Amino acid sequence: MASVLEDPALERHFRGHRDAVTCANFSPNNKQLATGSADTNVMIWNLSPKARAFRFVGHKDAVTGVEFSPSGELLVSSSRDKTVRLWTPTIKGESVLFRAHTAAVRSVSFSQDGQQLVTASDDKSVKVWAVHRQRFLYSLNQHTNWVRCARFSPDGRLIASCGDDKTVQLWDTATRQRINIFTDYGGCQTAVEFNSSGTCIASSGTDNTLKIWDLRTNKLLQHYQVHSAMINAFSFHPSCNFIITASSDSTVKVLDLLEGRLIYTLHGHKGSVLTVSFSRVGSLFASGGSDAQVLMWRTNFDAFSYKEMLKRHSQRVNPEPPPHLADIYPRGPHLHSAQSSSIEINPCVVDTQTADPAIIEAGQSVNSNMGGADLESRAGGGQAAREEDALGYSVASSPEQSSGLPLTISSTLEHIVRQLDILTQAVSLLEERLTLTEDKLKECLDAQAHMVLQVQQAGEGPMESGSQDSSA
């Protein structure tokens, strides 16, 4: 547990990944933690003691993003293998494959209602997908370099994206047009996120900074430069009073947003910290890094009156020293030692009795490509009734029993829908190429008009001088 005050405490560590941990997300019921890794696997850790962990196999390259749906019934992951997988987080570990982009997919996230997904990719595009029909909907194509992150606003009306073109861009999901662009950045932007009310966005970058913008006024509210290396990820506390950051300087830092200052520096990882995420209620947060460890921290930020907590913290960071004799009878200059700006925590794991959990391999049999039928209708189970599995989620009945159609008809319809989805993707690619062609053509026409204007101006000069000579 956390201390009598409000310090974060390292409660557990999870070992099972074979390479750097790149992403993490808590389930809505706060009972599971999903993580993704450069070892190409997605893992689900059960937070109850001595429970088994599940390793989901399917991606062919590093996993870059992972997130539970708002209901907790689905889990989505993105990967450098250019795909997105929609998993049923059960012991069977079955998934549907989205052939999402033409380059590595950097992030994936659900909308608040769980009906759509947004993906960001090195192909410079942001794409939106329908979850239950597993269909591509539309692309957003104004970034000029890799897009590292994209997120829906809480009300689903906006999408924020950021990337290596050093911009954060804001999109209207109704018109599918860019409505704002923030360019006041000194480096590539690694992550972007809305606060819980949707009034602000925060973004982090390779210039070691975190910035928070007010969307109502388009003004920069806060600017933090508390890390000595790039910030790889961050997460808002549900109260929006705090934010945690993960950096390549091997630390996690906790920022007090109401006071606008750093309050904690957390050590624990050996190497870059690549991901950090608060639980949905804010009592836990997880961090993962290049040391292949997942650390789970407990807080009690919400257990105190916020003003009382700030008062206690201020007293600990800046304790009042006893009066110095020279302050009472000044006889010459003297130096005071500088006070630390944040509380440093070098943790020990609270739970030293629980061994690393047993790991069960899942996801060996995988549904491929984007099908038109709902994921549940293909989650395979041989029994007519739905049953609870070891993770506490439902396992669907067989396809024929779920849809009520003969298997041959279902298969034919599925094939037709798959072909339509492939055509939709092809049309999207053609639209992107047409847009690029139009942009190039516009540039050529502008350049040609500029040249014509220059020629005309150059021609008018000699004619004027000739007319002056003749009049003379």
TrEMBL record:
InterPro entries: WD40/YVTN_repeat-like_dom_sf, WD40_PAC1, WD40_repeat_CS, WD40_repeat_dom_sf, WD40_rpt, WDR55/POC1. Residues 376-404 are annotated as: Disordered. Belongs to the WD repeat POC1 family. This is POC1 centriolar protein homolog B. Residues 413-440 form a coiled coil. It is found in: Cytoplasm, Cytoskeleton, Microtubule organizing center, Centrosome, Centriole. Keywords: Coiled coil, Cytoplasm, Cytoskeleton, Repeat, WD repeat. The gene is POC1B. GO terms for cellular component: centriole; ciliary basal body. One of its GO terms (biological process) is microtubule-based process. Pfam families: WD40. It comes from Scleropages formosus (Asian bonytongue). Residues 395-404 have a biased composition (Polar residues). WD repeats lie at residues 14-48, 56-87, 98-139, 140-181, 190-223, 224-265, 266-297.
